[in-house]
Amino acid sequence: MEENEFVPKSFDPALDVWTRLSETKKPIIMYGMGDGAEKILAVMEKYGIEPADFMASDEFVRGHSFKGHRVKKLSEIEELYDDFIVVICFGTAIPEVMENIMRISEKYETVAPDVPVIGDGLFDGDYISDHEFEIMTLKTLLADDQSRECLDMLMKYRITGDIGILRECESPREEMIDILNINTNETYVDLGAYDGDTIEEFLKLTNKQFQRIYALEPDRRSFTKLRRRLYYISANLLVAKNAAAWSSNTKLMFYNKAGRSSSFTDNISERTKGRGYETEAVSVDSLLSGKPATLIKYDVEGSEREALLGSEQTIKMYKPRLIVSLYHRVEDLIELPLLIHELNPNYKMFLRHHPYIPAWDTDLYCL
Q1: Helix residue ranges per DSSP H, 53-205
Q2: 48's torsion region: left (phi>0), alpha (psi -120 to 50) or beta?
Q3: d(Cα 55, Cα 87) in Å, to the nearest integer?
Q4: Which of 60-64, 97-101, 167-171, 214-218 bottoms out in mean pLDDT, i.e. has the lowest?
Q5: Which pTM value belongs to this model?
Q6: Which domains does the chain have, with CATH numbers?
Q7: How far apart are CA 215 and CA 121, in angstroms?
Q8: Can you tell me whether residue 129 is helix, strand or coil?
């Protein structure tokens, strides 16, 4: 084993972000509100960690309160405390916001704890120890040193919450184009097509030259926007369905949240609140009916495993290039690449993290 490889048993528990927060004498300042803060606070509560205050960017304060605290500006926090730890509780890929976070981190200790977008559990030292064999197996399957280094740094970031480590493993999104070699003869399947934005990116790359596009989007409002946005593509070239990607053809309960963060739920309370509704779910294999695909994107808010299983025959028979999100669930970073290898061991797999805090834009490219 090379010295620079990440060895789970050598991990220092004192570097764990939750241990750091539970042992600090500094006031803990939560930066951000909403779902991200709720999830981080839930973990903090289990560790007996109490936040001292909440802050937001100046333009978002506007008299907000959260968890009984008035949300303050950074300047107000600085007047109250000589020193403190900042806990990032939101996600962003906006360069100006990311740079502002880095400026704060230069002045104050700053962490961005990793909590799953969907599901429970933590990617912590225990998780790594329990999955040491799978991690080492994955390292042997990744196609280049950059992928292996990215995996090491992502694991270290997830445990430490150190945004400096996260930013060190960033690579520009444009690198995807070089890896995938997208051309003008593609049959593209967009799973989690949202409002059609990623299809428009595909159209720009191909100068609107392609064989066919298949799009699945379960959210009704996003699907309506997709249809309006792509109105100019004829029905024989764009097969768009208001449906989820799944392992089989079925019906699922869909929980509608703002933006891209919608997901499936068995939570009865969500149904009674009117936020959950039944939606169609289909497998890629049934969608294609035995026809080939050359490129498939999986960004389905935690349903990637099910969607991959529903693509089994297509993956085995045609080996389409794959773009797979690896950040929604705790287990995705390790388990999804291993599943793809199981479905078709002939893939070359490249792991990349594109600029985002926390590690939400982490993708696997399979050729």
Answers
A1: 58-61, 74-80, 95-107, 125-130, 132-141, 145-160, 163-168, 175-180, 197-205
A2: left
A3: 10
A4: 60-64
A5: 0.91
A6: 13-113 (3.40.50.20), 175-366 (3.40.50.150)
A7: 31
A8: helix
